[in-house]
């Protein structure tokens, strides 16, 4: 059982997920343990390397959103957050779109309502990163866009998240516990609007990102980069909050990469 080749498992990930969901008892436990102790550690190893992760990103996204068990969902969600934070999704816009679709549909499906609050909050943060990456690609490519059906689904996701986290008093505790959640909700709402309007709305934040990159290139120290960016923002206060947040997400990935590199 534990001698399975992870590469072969990845090629048939949809079949494996369907097989597990149809299994119960000890047999299901064995298959879950296989993913926990063999598949996920190997995926994690590939993600922490500097090369592109390729198809592993799709496997991680599917495991994170399959709802197989808490242990698998939690571990895969952590890996997915690492992937989107460092923008290592294989370097292709089509792969990014596939992963965005997987996460988007997990929010609109029963998966979302069945998960623990902490996992849902992490999923929201992951989705905010994905939309910024997707907006970045759409802004650079006039031929890249979501289908009308996907855009409608995206609007439905925004409405569902707004209803869950802003229309009731209980979720306010979630925002107090997780400051990233409110920011992620704001980013999702704005990014969804810009994505629906196509590449024209993206030119401003791409130009801002170029300027931010020129600031960051002056030092390899993430702490100094943040200080320099603060000075830059004070001099260029005409940019929208979203452009600033876009740059912060970008820096977040750089800091994560630097930390990983130093610890490796």
List the main descriptive attributes of the protein structure presented here.
3 domains; 264 residues; single chain; 77% helix; 14 helices; mainly alpha
Explain the overall architecture.
This protein has 264 residues and is mainly α. The protein folds into three domains: 1-91; 114-197; 201-264, no CATH class. The protein contains 14 helices and no strands. The protein has helices at residues 6-11, 13-21, 25-48, 56-64, 70-86, 93-108, 110-114, 117-140, 148-166, 172-177, 179-196, 203-216, 222-235, 241-263. The longest helix is centred in the N-terminal third of the chain and has 24 residues, at 25-48. It is globular and about 60 Å long. The two termini are 31 Å apart.
Describe how the helices and strands are arranged.
Elements: H1 6-11, H2 13-21, H3 25-48, H4 56-64, H5 70-86, H6 93-108, H7 110-114, H8 117-140, H9 148-166, H10 172-177, H11 179-196, H12 203-216, H13 222-235, H14 241-263
Specify the overall morphology.
globular
Beta-strand content bin: under 5%
Query: How many helices?
Result: 14
Tell me the major beta sheet. none
What structural category characterises the helix and strand content? Answer: mainly alpha
Number of domains: 3
- The value of Rg in angstroms is 19 Å
Average pLDDT number: 76
Uncertain residue ranges: 255-264
In N-to-C order, the SSE pattern is: HHHHHHHHHHHHHH
Give the tally of β-strands.
Answer: 0
Short structural description:
The protein is mainly alpha-helical and 264 residues long. It has 14 helices and no strands.
